[in-house]
């Protein structure tokens, strides 16, 4: 399988090179030259597979430069009930991502947050940790990962990479904008290969720094800079798997369809759903849910993409989605404009200069219905009401991001064809956002025993200005040492 850049760079690398490379040399994002198609016979054969078997079957279509036996061993090692052990009582941890039905067969949560850091990022990040180690060992190389987080990617990456040989992680987070639990998860790690940097600014500032450093080809090559954000194709590829698993769990036969509602910020999670649908998975609707930072909702309603500046991005109680410049959105727009890299370059010239673009009158936007997307947004008051309602109606406690998803799923339910199960992706567990759970329910969320008292542990973090040169200097000093 060869990959191309959304901005048209001539090279056509294979998977392992883009795993280590992250962004394409022209600043674009990698996508497969064509999306592999899944036949009905394959869907039938995959229905009974375990998560690890399914991951191997799907990833084999995208990863053709790792021997099959090795890829299978990596999937088997990654997707175990020991790693993804926090399933809700009554749901089987062996399923890895069980569906928790709120209304049997009709309305459920796809449990994606049962991994070590209690957010859906673990689904891909644990695999990346094992893939990085495998490829770096084979090549005798090292990597210095530079990442940006609004709260969950950071801890998932750090937990996945801690102790891995050949890997250092430099993780930028927005200073003072994450929950106390999220901060503690990251900043309490004392491993030698983990560096936390809190930048004064928002997630988008941190993400811009990651892109600026990655776009300095000489620096990137000299200091072996890699990526773990969903700009790295490997993240998206790994996330495709749970759409298939969720589909099989929610249906009895491959003649049925499913609708997924996806809490969205950087557009990585739902981009994986889009690709699963392009591969032939029978997804009736992909419902995109935002919080008050509703740039993506605005696009799907109007065709206008208007990224906001950091000062206009709100700090909300679903902080991991406080994102106004969704870097992964470029992958979807590439498909929307007929995979024309010149159009993408033109559109992102405006975005990179802080401007909007308007596709409302374009041919692509006229066909947007074919992609199955609908969207909606949610507010702090909606989150509180939804957390309360789900708890009262079903006895199930959900986190603030999943609450955004449930609220928008309810708003959009009328657009889902009759008889089609509606599944909301559960993107984090409530304990990560205990402040808002207390406000909504007047009680503490459940907390795994191993994470008891995490907020009281000593923390190690460097606070810095969002300054590209200073961040580079920080990396050079650590890597040199
Ligand atoms: C808990 C949670 N929910 C939802 C999202 C949104 O996912 P994405 O950025 O892939 O759209 C994120 C991160 O962005 C997250 O951490
Ligand atoms: N919500 C994310 C933001 C980064 O998204 P990514 O999927 O591109 O890594 C976070 O929690 O950090």
Summed up:
The protein is α/β, with parallel strands linked by helices.
Total of helices: 19
Strand content: 5-15%
Strand order of the largest sheet: 3-4-14-9-10-13
Count of distinct strands: 15
Please describe the biggest sheet, giving its number of strands, its sense, and whether it closes into a barrel.
Answer: 6 strands, mixed
- Pairing-aware structural class of the strands and helices? alpha/beta
Percent of residues in helices: 40-55%
Morphology call = globular
Oligomeric state, counting identical vs distinct chains = single chain
Bound molecules: pyridoxal-5'-phosphate, ligand LJ64HWYM
Radius of gyration: 21 Å
Q: Low-confidence parts lasting 5 or more residues at pLDDT below 50? A: none
Cα-to-Cα separation, first versus last residue: 38 Å
Q: Mean pLDDT across all residues, rounded?
A: 96
Keywords: Amino-acid biosynthesis, Lyase, Pyridoxal phosphate, Threonine biosynthesis
Domain Tryptophan synthase beta chain-like PALP: 110-341
Pfam family, one: PALP
Catalytic activity: O-phospho-L-homoserine + H2O = L-threonine + phosphate
Task: Give descriptors for this structure.
481 residues, alpha/beta, six-stranded mixed sheet, five-stranded parallel sheet, 19 helices, 15 strands, 42% helix, globular, binds pyridoxal-5'-phosphate, binds the ligand N[C@@H](CCOP(=O)(O)O)C(=O)O
């Amino acid at each position: 399988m060869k990959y191309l850049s959304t901005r048209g760079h001539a090279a056509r690398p294979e998977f392992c090179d883009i795993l280590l490379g992250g962004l394409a040399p022209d600043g674009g994002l990698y996508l497969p030259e064509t999306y592999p198609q899944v036949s009905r016979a394959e869907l039938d054969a995959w229905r009974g597979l375990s998560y690890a078997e399914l991951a191997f079957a799907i990833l084999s279509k995208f990863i053709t430069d790792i021997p099959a036996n090795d890829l299978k061993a990596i999937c088997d090692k990654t997707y175990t009930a020991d790693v993804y052990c926090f399933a809700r009582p009554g749901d089987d941890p062996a399923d890895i991502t069980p569906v928790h039905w709120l209304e049997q067969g009709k309305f459920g949560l796809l449990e994606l947050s049962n991994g070590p850091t209690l957010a859906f990022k673990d689904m891909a990040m644990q695999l990346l940790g094992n893939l990085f180690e495998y490829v770096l060992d084979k090549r005798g190389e090292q990597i210095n990962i530079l990442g940006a987080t609004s709260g969950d990617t950071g801890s998932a990456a750090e937990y996945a990479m801690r102790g891995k040989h050949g890997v250092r992680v430099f993780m930028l987070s927005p200073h003072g904008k994450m929950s106390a639990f999220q901060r503690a998860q990251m900043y309490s790690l004392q491993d030698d290969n983990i560096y936390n940097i809190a930048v004064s600014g928002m997630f988008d500032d941190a993400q811009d720094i990651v892109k600026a450093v990655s776009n300095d080809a000489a620096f990137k090559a000299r200091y072996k800079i890699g990526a773990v954000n969903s700009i790295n194709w490997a993240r998206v590829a790994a996330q495709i798997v749970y759409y298939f698993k969720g589909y099989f769990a929610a249906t009895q036969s491959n003649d049925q369809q499913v609708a997924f509602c996806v809490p969205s910020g950087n557009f990585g999670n739902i981009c994986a759903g889009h690709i699963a649908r392009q591969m032939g998975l029978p997804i009736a609707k992909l419902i995109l849910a935002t919080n008050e930072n509703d740039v993506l909702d605005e696009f799907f309603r109007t065709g206008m993409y208007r990224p906001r500046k950091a000062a206009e991005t709100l700090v909300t109680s679903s902080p991991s989605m406080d994102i106004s410049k969704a870097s992964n959105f470029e992958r979807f727009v590439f498909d929307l404009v007929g995979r024309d890299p010149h159009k993408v370059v033109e559109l992102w010239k405006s975005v990179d200069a802080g401007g909007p673009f308007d596709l409302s009158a374009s041919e692509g936007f006229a066909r947007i219905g074919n992609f199955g997307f609908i969207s909606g947004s949610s507010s702090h008051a909606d989150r509180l009401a939804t957390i309360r309602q789900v708890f009262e109606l079903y006895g199930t406690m959900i986190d603030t991001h999943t609450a955004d998803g449930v609220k928008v799923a309810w708003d959009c339910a009328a657009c889902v064809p009759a008889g089609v199960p509606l599944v909301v992706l559960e993107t984090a567990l409530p304990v990560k956002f205990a402040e808002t759970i207390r406000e909504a329910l007047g009680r503490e969320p459940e907390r795994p025993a191993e994470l008891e008292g995490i907020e009281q542990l000593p923390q190690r973090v460097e606070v810095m200005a969002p300054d590209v040169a200073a961040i580079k200097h920080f990396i050079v000093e650590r890597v040199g040492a």
